[in-house]
Amino acid sequence: MCGIAGYIGYREAYPIVIKGLQRLEYRGYDSAGIMLYDNKIIISKTKGKVSDLEKLMNSENTKEGTIGFGHTRWATHGIPNDINSHPHVSNSGNLVIIHNGIIENYDSIKQELTKRGYTFQSDTDTEVLVNLIEEIKKTNKCKLGKAVQIALNEVIGAYAIAVFDKEKPDELIVARLGSPIAIGIGEDNKEFFVASDASPFIEYTKNAIYLEDEEMAIIRKDRGIKIRKIKDDTLITHEVQQLKMNLEQIEKGGYDHFMLKEIHEQPHAITDTYRGRLIANKGIIRMAGVDDNIEKFLNANRIIVVACGTSWHAGLVAEYLFEDLARIPVEVEYASEFRYRNPIITDKDIVIAISQSGETADTLAAIKLAKEKGAFVFGVCNVVGSSIARETHAGAYTHAGPEIGVASTKAFTTQITLLSLIALKLGKAKGNLSTVDYQNYLQEMELIPKKVAELLTIDDKVKYIASIYKDVPNCLYLGRGYNFPVALEGALKLKEISYIHAEGYPAAEMKHGPIALIDENMPIVVIATSKGHYEKVVSNIQEIKSRKGKIIAVVTEGDTQVKAIADHVIEIPETNEAFTPLLTTIPLQLLSYHIAVMLNKNVDQPRNLAKSVTVE
Ligand code: G6P
């Protein structure tokens, strides 16, 4: 949460930083601020979005300077207002900081600094940190880098920071613990970019370094970068990575919203997930992360999935996949709960951590715990080089491409695709799947992208349904088996972007509570595909109908039974039961998208949410 972007070099910093912040807005958008240096420090900050900051800059300030940084905030300490916005300045006015993370012991440090005469304008932990650095610099009579290092050894919490000192205007210091920092290296080592991910500098350089936890970098104009361990000052050399991301991937490409673009990218994204891994005509699924550790997978007593949000829903689908196809027991855990229990884990367990961003703090902590307890940890991430990808023993990328809309769409379906491949591979290796069944699954997987593309053409129908129900206060989503997690995900999408209260339930559980909510005003989205408890779900639909609920049913094409009773039906192409989530999810994504658009909500940046949750 919170995005940071900075530049030091020979170009004007303002356009680079402001565009960078726009690209990082998915990380938080409660407020935005910028610092530029051109013989004097210029700071501009405001509650609201980066576009509000731009307006402010246009009306108030000069935009000169070849060094600068900016911040887009997801509020933790202190309400989102102008004063709590970053950057924050030290009492002397010399030091400026931006910060993504939380300093947990800020209160005791603040009290100590207050005793020494420091005053604070904001309620933030960040303003405490910048003054701590100032105090250390003053009392130790040291350089900025040293002061930052000492300060970071005193704080408890998580951070990605960038610090500037007026007395050293050709230098930027960045550091990380728990929150990401990418450094872009421009031509001839003469300019440098810093950011929470590489998107702000993708058009300037493809060369990047990712800081590891507990590392800091001292970046000097014309003189390069020095990376040190924060704890013991050891000098580190990092391999420069070649970025594969391109500009088109992070722009809207003619769509009104990133979310819609990403929904429509799913046929491609799913293909990219299995490209080079699935060779259906030869009956091969190749995945280095699994192949290299195949014995561990085959001998595992159980699989524990840890994840948050939509990725947790993908984990629930994986539970069905692994138990059904590979006959391995699975437990699916919210990472945030798992990390604070005293879970029983042995070296016979495999932990699969699922995360789009690869940066979610709770998932990362769960991984560390599982590793400590001896488990083999496998990561399923989208963002290449992310913290979770690096922290896990092995893993596989989903290759969905950048997902920018805060509500996750293509990340979900590509995670399920990848997990399906693993389950099939293990199912075959363990002898649980016959060659014929295995072969059928592989061939069917190759058809999924085409079926998703076909489904996307029903957009107008979904739009019509959205127009009928857009003003409801509540909505219920029901599904069974493989489609129970899809019901949860459908409900999550609706509440995230339209702010309509929605709940997902296993269809049969409806009678144990939610049925009390049903009346003629309540829409109920029911996933009733032809395979997997169809008759039972039809009975559930009858129960809803007799209570006058409005039924929006997702059925398999050719269905007649549900069609006769439901108020609306959306048909999905025929597929095997295990792959239905890849199709049933699509209309639910579109439904929430259209409702949110009709309600005039900010689809890509829903209130209070952030895409990458790097704090607890
Ligand atoms: C946030 C996002 C969700 C996402 C969840 C887990 O809450 O808003 O869309 O599902 O984090 O993120 P991850 O990157 O770990 O999949």
Class from secondary-structure proportions: alpha/beta
What is the overall number of helices?
20
Q: On the 0-100 scale, what is the average pLDDT?
A: 94
Binned strand content: 15-25%
Distance between the termini: 10 Å
The total beta strand count reads: 27
Largest sheet strand order: 3-2-4-1-10-9-11-15
Helical fraction = 25-40%
Descriptive notes:
The protein has 616 residues and is α/β, with parallel strands linked by helices. 37% of the residues lie in helices and 23% in strands. It has 20 helices and 27 strands. It has an eight-stranded antiparallel β-sheet, covered by helices on one side. Strands 5-6-7-8-12-13-14 form a seven-stranded antiparallel β-sheet, with helices on one face. The chain has a five-stranded parallel β-sheet with strand order 19-18-20-21-22, sandwiched between helices. Strand 26 (550-556), helix 19 (561-565) and strand 27 (568-572) form a beta-alpha-beta unit. The longest helix has 21 residues, at 435-455. It is globular, with a radius of gyration of 25 Å. The N and C termini lie close together (10 Å). The protein binds 6-O-phosphono-alpha-D-glucopyranose. 6-O-phosphono-alpha-D-glucopyranose binds at residues 308-311, 355-357, 360, 363, 406, 408, 609, 611-613. Residues 308-311, 355-357, 360, 363, 406, 408, 609, 611-613 line the site of 6-O-phosphono-alpha-D-glucopyranose.
Keywords for this entry:
Rossmann fold; binds 6-O-phosphono-alpha-D-glucopyranose; Glutamine Phosphoribosylpyrophosphate, subunit 1, domain 1; alpha/beta; 3 domains; 8-stranded antiparallel β-sheet; 616 residues; 20 helices
